[in-house]
Amino acid sequence: MQIAIESPIDMHLHLRDNAMLRLAAPLSAETFAGAVVMPNLLPPVTDAAAMEAYARRIGAACGPDFRPWMTLFLKDQGERELLAARSFSNFFGLKLYPAGVTTNSGGGVLRFDRIGRTLAVMQEMGVPLLVHGESRGFVMDREREFLAVYRSLAEQYPGLTISMEHITTAAALRLLDEYENLVATVTLQHLLFTLDDLAGGLLRPELFCKPVVKRPEDREALCEAALNGHPRLMFGSDSAPHPRSNKECLGCAAGVFTAPFALQRLAGLFAEAGRLENLQAFVSGNARCIYGFAPPVKRVVLTDVPFHIPALYRGFGESVVPMGAGEWIPWSVSAPLPGASACG
Amino acid sequence: MQIAIESPIDMHLHLRDNAMLRLAAPLSAETFAGAVVMPNLLPPVTDAAAMEAYARRIGAACGPDFRPWMTLFLKDQGERELLAARSFSNFFGLKLYPAGVTTNSGGGVLRFDRIGRTLAVMQEMGVPLLVHGESRGFVMDREREFLAVYRSLAEQYPGLTISMEHITTAAALRLLDEYENLVATVTLQHLLFTLDDLAGGLLRPELFCKPVVKRPEDREALCEAALNGHPRLMFGSDSAPHPRSNKECLGCAAGVFTAPFALQRLAGLFAEAGRLENLQAFVSGNARCIYGFAPPVKRVVLTDVPFHIPALYRGFGESVVPMGAGEWIPWSVSAPLPGASACG
Asked: What are phi and psi of B113, to 5 degrees?
């Protein structure tokens, strides 16, 4: 069996910087036409100059056929800063991190009542808001507790497109359906796993991410929405490369590395459910409809020939353990066909 | 400040075997007068001969001043096997593992309706039943789901003392109060930590055990019961040494190593809550009342002088990462005074 996917887009990607960027970015570019790139470097990407420089480093790492849609780390940017950002054609939106909830989010937002000016300007300019939606409560409740913030933002800024990033619960899906200006991304790991997979048998650091994987009924609800082509649910891998030494240790970093085979694994998931016809919308179509994206032309042909996930991805002095290291997955890429230099 | 504890007992201890036993057992014997030793070796300890041989190996590792109360792994033992076991003065009870729920439990019980004969004989002979009370459901629900089994056992065998081992939830505590023939043990880690500590920040394999640490309200309920001297709640460390290579890896074993400093850490916890007067009952008195234990005479003097937990316990070619490796805790042992050779 085969399926061709046109210009797959990863709506939530961590590429880090320096050697890790040079290792990770080409692995995303192998199967994706572009990705929305997160700004939580150290220090975070907060202005147009830093963003453009980061985009150049990404381009240098993976070439012109992969389009990085760039984001700024939301602080208290105003009209001037947003105009400067918007003059850059690859600028996409602002990412809101509540302070301290995930990797490199220490400089994030502490009080939501202090970012009203920025959000008002974003709404006026049509700049999307991407949100890491977790409270600082008990780890299994953080997303649910944050839903009140989403609700408040959706009501206060009806003209602002608010993306609930990497949602993990059935409750978030229900909220998504309540407000037209909410959209959402979901990762591969939250479609496949629950806390049982992370900590129900042996403890598996390769599956540890923020937000943590949740309950079986949450996973099932997310799967059902993705497989049935929910028009405001998009694939965002949240793929995050960490050095192996930060995963196999006593204080293991949050982040799951899936970018090199996420599309293949999704094809297997959609095929198994008899829903391959909805994969195009999930990995590209919905994002194009919602944001008017024009990704580089790239046709990726997927086939039900098993693919072996390497035990480790190495390069440039870095090594990253992927999700499912050493396992076989049922689908692989038979022919990624990069388009012409349509990259913005 | 100082407090003297008479003959502290660890009501739930894993010592493993061979080199690990030789490393771990003396560390328990430093502060405890005795311990109830778990039988989940590979193969499990299922008969009197294996139990006596294991007790001899424990004695060889830590000397005569530490009393190991021995348990058998519950299979389908009958009157003959239990009589043989009971002829050994250090025999304590049988441990029920539902098949596959924790380390080395593969040979455990699959169907509770098949062990009625064994339980009836135990009740008749006054042999306690110790239970790892988890279902095979979602990891956060396993203990709660198992409570129906506890309830059924408590009602079917009113003359059997049933110990709910290492309880982790407020719901288990409520059940404990419903039946006179239920008793319970609780670990140090379940008094101190929740899933937030295991997976809410970085992922911490050193805190990973079965049953997993639970919600804040569960921890609070357990603490309240222990600190207030609940007469049927006893300290059982569930301390379980795993080689370091099995904790810092991609498939991390369940088990937390606390035995060498559990008593000191408990002293800090009880002192902080102003409940030092209840520590004696929790770590010794309750067990003596419930089971009529006569532990070796040993007075341990604890004092509020900080103790540094080593990064690693090493010996005999093994190395074990303890809970809180490298951290300081507020209390230490100022004078462990082993009694005469009162060991049974």
From this structure: -75, -5
